[in-house]
Structure formats: C-alpha cells, structure tokens
Write a structure and sequence with these properties.
Layout: H1 3-10, H2 13-22, E1 27-28, H3 29-36, H4 40-52, E2 56-61, E3 64-69, H5 71-84, H6 101-137
Antiparallel strand pairs: 1-3, 2-3
Length: about 140
C-alpha cells in the first residue's frame, strides 16, 4: 500500500462519501447507489479505485458484491501522519499513570488529520475553481447568451 494511492483515492469527495457510508456496516453496491443517489457505474468505478488503494474490501454473496472498509491502509496512514507530529510527553505527577501509546497517538493524529483535511480541501477548491474558469471561457455552441 502506497500512501500516495491512499491520498489520491481520498482526494475525491464521492469516494469519501462512500467510505463514510461504509463506516458502520458492510453494504452492497445497490445499497450504496440508493443511499448516495449516485449511478451504479459511478459507484462501481469509485469502489474499484478504493479497492486498488486497499481502503475497501469486497466479498461476493451470490451475484451481489458486499463492500466493507479495510482498516489496514487507514491505520498505516494514521501512523504515517502521527510520525510527522512530535508527541510532547508531559511529566505526570507522582501516583498518576502515564498515558499509553494509543492515547498519545490519537492526541497526535487529530491535529494532523485536520491539517491534511484543510490542505486537501484547499487543493480541491483551487482545482475546482480553475476548472470552472476554464469552462466559462469555452464558447457556448448552439446557445445564445
């Protein structure tokens, strides 16, 4: 699993919606189509990208395909992000227990996840804005202004 593939897969808002829809339980493609109100070919295309990035896994149940979140790639991403942020260890007063590493990890990951989310969001806004400007410059064939 390459971190670049995970970031690339999660950069698309539709794929993030699919991940969010799968967070509580595995779902069939048809269920995702209904819940997200997206066409079946579009959902299938995005699920393929998520599967290639190892963010979801698929199980066949007859003719149905059931998708669920594969947490291994997300855990690798979280650990990678946590390594970027130095964990500040505070001295605990006598008698208090030191926090375990998972507590430190979750405390360190939240600000990093927020920073990544903001960066990705800004990048998407810039690309969307540029695409909109480009489309507005194209001539409108067969339409009157």
């Amino acid at each position: 699993m390459a971190i670049d593939e995970v970031f690339s897969a999660l950069a698309e808002p539709t794929r993030r919606k699919i991940i969010e829809a799968l967070k509580n339980e595995p779902k069939a493609v048809g269920t995702l189509v209904t819940e997200l109100e997206i066409s079946q070919p579009t959902v299938s295309k995005h699920l393929k990208v998520l599967r290639e990035a190892q963010l979801v896994s698929m199980a066949a149940a007859g003719q149905r395909r059931i998708y669920s979140i594969d947490t291994s790639a997300l855990e690798d991403l979280v650990h990678w992000c946590a390594d970027l942020v130095p964990v500040q260890e505070a001295e605990a007063p006598a008698g208090e227990q030191q926090p375990n590493s998972s507590t430190q990890l979750s405390a360190a990951v939240n600000p990093t996840a927020q920073q990544i989310s903001r960066s990705v969001g800004r990048g998407l806004e810039q690309v969307t804005g540029r695409a909109q400007e480009f489309l507005e410059r194209l001539p409108r064939f067969g339409r009157r202004r």
